Amino acid sequence: MAGDLYSRFAQSFDRFSGKVLVEDGARSWTYGEIAREAGRLAARLQELGVTPGERVLVQTDKNVETLILYFATIRAGAIYLPLNVDYTESELDYFATDATPVLAVCRDISVDLFGRIGGGAMQVTTLAQLFADLPEAEAEPVPRAGDDVAAILYTSGTTGKPKGAMLTQDNLASNGEMLIDFWRFTPEDRLIHALPIFHVHGLFIAVHCVLFSGASMVFLPKFESARVIDLMASSTVLMGVPTFYIRLLGDPVFTQESAAHMRLFISGSAPLSADIHRAFEERCGHRVLERYGMTETGMLTSNPYDGERRAGYVGPPLPGVSLRIAEFETGRVLPQGEVGIVEVKGPNVFRGYWQMPEKTAAEFRPDGYFITGDMGLIDSDGYVQLVGREKDLIISGGLNVYPAEVEALLDDRPDVAEAAVIGVPHPDFGEAVVAVVQPAGPFDPEAVREALRKDLAAFKVPKAVLTMEALPRNTMGKIQKKLLRETYAGLFGG
Ligand code: MLC
Ligand code: AMP
Predict the structure, then answer these.
(1) Which CATH fold topology does 393-487 show?
(2) Of which family is this protein a member (predicted)?
């Protein structure tokens, strides 16, 4: 197995040197050009004191320079730490303080903010500054061991603060290598890249499938259905979250003809409803290939390329992934067909949470299986069906929101006696974040939403804040979130 991630990058950079790797609206870059820029940028990172194992924090817009920065960071042997551009100052301060990066690369408008956070210990720069007068001489790739950390991606938790998932060189290299075979990527492919590049899906899954196979991609700043439909005539693959497919179906311009040149539509990061799956096939003749993964593990299961792509199922475990269903409380492995917690093991499973050995230990079974927090079953054909989550988590448009984080901010307010944050069905985002509040006096829901915006990224801010005289509780005094979810299921039209 590849082991060292940059060696795997370099293999493609050399082999496909003259071929286009990426294009945006303005220009295209060949594999060779990207490799050369990554080599020069790695030299710049070294000039700035970035040494192997140091963290490079990145909060920039989606563009090709950021992609080169990712390659350069790996080439320099450092750890890439990408962050959602939506994060607020308090969220960023936590990440910077926890990860102690040596360098932060941010947008021009955030330079002052970055100077204030993380104890002021890191150097702060922008893409423009980094790329100005790059050294001519490229840095030599720094060799790394397979279990050295290549990237840290923060995921929140049901309790407490976000945790930095440490993904190793081999986690990323092995998952990418397996996927290009499984999904049949070739140098003839052209991927429509409309996902953000601060998550596993857009950064590792999409980019590595293209890079490892010698394919090319069109980098879009964000998903816009009209642009995506336009590009289908000259592209072959779209990778996205269910909201992409919902929005394509909402666009009457999208027809069988629009999709005639495409070979594959992949969906993941959130459940794709069987209805959307069927409606998509009816509209354009393609059966979406749904797969399942996590930040901590990369890709875990996938519907088959050739066999039956079953609506409402995430498919069998991918090659190299061991997946079992167990009883959550005891870890007892359950027989086929029974619903339990999904547990996984394989070369794709992360090394642990950054500086949180206890939290890491709590999420692995003694025999090394990682407890995903997802509930599911394996059917008689070996297909995995996810039926819910043990973890209290809302997935909105493919982005995770942990109710506990929003509830903590609400509960701190003097006008709130108690709050429960739930996910309710939403026609565009799949699930939407909703807060149900028991007020402690005069209460203005819009003012509350505005206040939350200061501390929370926009996607975490409840789309609705509702009030109740008293939150429903069970006999143990616990808030009955299930009942709340049922009560408000029709809030956004079901
Ligand atoms: C944006 N908003 C969202 C949102 N995205 N709200 C809830 N959920 C979301 N996902 C906010 C905006 O800030 C704005 O708020 C309002 O909602 C309307 O935004 P929009 O213009 O409609 O959103 P848009 O920019 O079009 O983005 C929607 C989206 C995007 C679905 C295209 O969120 C997206 O690309 N999601 C993909 C996320 C992803 O890559 N997940 C993979 C995680 S990895 P306001 O208040 O300003 O109006 C993983 C592992 C795996 O899960 O298995 O893949
Ligand atoms: P993240 O922490 O962003 O990596 O989110 C991972 C979670 O997304 C998983 O634990 C699942 O709950 C969910 N997820 C990913 N893919 C799918 C899918 N195809 N269907 C249902 N849930 C999914």
Answers:
(1) GMP Synthetase; Chain A, domain 3 (3.30.300)
(2) Belongs to the ATP-dependent AMP-binding enzyme family.
